[in-house]
Amino acid sequence: MQELAGIDATFLYLETETAHMHVVGTIVLDGEGGTELFDRVRRRIASRLHEVPAFRQRLVHVPLRLGHPVWVDDPDFRLGAHLHRIALPQPGSMRELSDFVAHVAAIPLDRERPLWELWVVEGLADKRTALVCKFHHAAIDGVSGADLMQHLFDVDPDAADDEPPAWTPEPAPSELTLLAHAVGELALQPARVVQTAAKTAVSLADVASAYLDPRSLVRNPALPLASPETMVNDAISSDRSTAFGQVSLADIKTIKNALGMTVNDVILAACSLALREYLLEHDEVPDEPLVATIPVSMHGDAHGPSNNAVSAMFVRLPTHLEKPLDHLRFVQSEAAEAKELHRSSRFALLAEWAEYASPTWFAALMNLYSRYNLAESHSPLYNLVVSNVPGPPMPLYCAGHRVLDCYPLGPIFEGSAVNLTVMSYVDRVDIGVIACPDVAPEIDHIVESFEKAVTKLLKLVGNSRPNKPKPRKKRHR
Fold first, then answer.
1. Does residue 375 carry a pLDDT above 60?
2. CA angle 451-455-457, nearest 5°?
3. DSSP labels for 383-418?
4. By three-state DSSP, how is residue 352 classified?
5. How far out from the chain centre does Cα 258 lie?
6. How many CB atoms lie within 10 A of CB 155?
7. Gyration radius of the chain's alpha carbons
8. Would you say residue 309 has pLDDT above 70?
9. 59 phi and psi, to 5 degrees?
10. I need a labelling partner for 424 at 20 to 30 A (CA). Which of 141, 159, 180, 270 fits?
11. Is-contact 68 3, C-beta < 8 A?
12. Nearby residues of 40 by Cβ (< 8 Å), 6 or more positions away
């Protein structure tokens, strides 16, 4: 038995009928599917059940909702309930794959089982296959999701399949055990609240000090509820659309090195330029910058058994500016300020405060917020989520098939209908965009504009020939 950390449980409480708190990864392989590939994927997962709790554990609620739910081994676990096989009409295009992924993303996970599923999608053009993996955010975040790839894939194309070890689920705790544990935690909570409040007071003092220090970069930080009204900030439905794109990591690094920036700065500037083009198409460009929420990994600072070691910072994206160089300069300054504010404000305290979220009231309030479309009644908390996840720098293989592309998709929230997530893999950067199509239509234009933005920025630094990611060589079997 393992109680969910507060930050993990919060992703359960945030979930509504229209806002699904799962993440989806689409992984394209270089070979055709078939029974052999499907069976080898099944054996690989079966051989990792004892190592990856997320594969085998389901939620159990504490009686009277006196505490956060707990993870327990599913006594009725069946791998076949989570692993599926489907074929697109040949030759399946990336648009058809994207439509299928959108369909998968629009369906909530069954909370009576372990919170994941995997689809082997056959029939793609050029003799390719895709794996579509869906996990609830309570079970993994971006970094732990990337780490999960190490359990599913190999660095050696000729790696042998492991034999699945015998695995027996641990017995579930009794309701009395759960209740006693929750009561014990509640007894300690007042003292913990006092400690967290004291840490928060120190954090606020540090923020004030950073703001007043003339040497500090913190001058006018982006803050929640200070976002402009845009077309993407509205009540959402349960429908989803997705789009995939790709640029060369070498091009990103060329821009970074020429201008003395970071890879993240360049990616944010490309996102800003892409969003400007998208909003221009709909005559919706605001007169002030957008505010993006940027997830920040805290895995190096994490304490305790949390699946989500993540915080967030807010960065303005200058969609109101026209020139690409202005986007780069603006974003570089904004990102530096946001990072310093994040360091001084100890945003990791969010995870501590999340421990006190009520399982009953939090979820009930979120459902009321969604049901009555209250996201339309106030200024946006933020405009959208932009996430940058570092992926594996070396080629990976699945059952001997080389992994070509890794397209990540995060969740969208009430009042924010678009999420852009990018992930590096070997020599490329893959981008996945997910949205509610009732609020933000034609998001493939965002992806196209992102790719064009990198080309524009590359020309800006004197390189007029963008690097196309090298085609992957197929292995002959």
1. yes
2. 115
3. SEEEEEE---SS--EETTEEEEEEEEE---BTTB-E
4. helix
5. 29
6. 11
7. 23
8. no
9. -85, 145
10. 159
11. yes
12. 161, 398, 399
Q: Is the pLDDT of residue 477 over 50?
A: no
Write the CA distances from 260 to 30, 265, 453, integer angstroms. 36, 10, 18
Q: What angle do CA 182, 183, 186 make, to 5 degrees?
A: 85
Active-site annotation holds for 137: yes
Of the candidates 137, 320, 327, 401, the residue annotated as catalytic is 137
Of 291, 294, 286, 333, the C-alpha closest to 311 is 294
Q: In which residue are the tokens 């956060």 written?
A: 68
Q: Which residue type occupies 196?
A: T
**Which tokens go with 182?**
């929750």
The whole-angstrom separation of Cα 334 and Cα 328 is 10
Q: What is the mean pLDDT of residues 321-339?
A: 93
| Unique residue bearing structure tokens 């079997």 | 477
Mind listing the pLDDT tens digit for each residue in 317-329?
999 999 999 999 9
Q: What is the pLDDT of residue 351?
A: 72
Distant-in-sequence, close-in-space partners of 453: CB < 8 Å, separation ≥ 6: 269, 270, 271, 273, 274, 277, 324
In terms of C-beta density within 10 A (0-12 exposed, 13-18 middle, 19 or more buried), how is residue 166 classed? exposed
| Pairwise CA distance, residues 146 & 142, whole Å | 6
3-state secondary structure of 39: helix
Residue 459 identity? K
Q: CB of 313 within 8 A of CB of 338?
A: yes
The predicted-structure confidence for 16-34, as pLDDT tens digits, reads as follows 999 999 999 999 999 988 8
List, in sequence order, every residue forming a beta bridge with 425; answer none if it has no partner. Answer: 428
Question: Helices 324-345 and 249-259 meet at what angle, rounded to 10?
Answer: 80
Q: Is 474's pLDDT higher than 50?
A: no
CA distance 46 to 55: 9
Single-letter residue type at 400: G
Beta strands 83-92; 116-124: pairing state? parallel
Structural domains for the chain: 2-160+173-179 (3.30.559.10), 193-386+427-460 (3.30.559)
Cα–Cα distance measured from residue 441 to residue 395, given in angstroms and rounded to the nearest whole number: 34
Name the more confident of 152 and 219: 152
With a CB cutoff of 8 Å and minimum separation 6, the contacts of 391 are 146, 149, 406, 423, 424, 425, 430
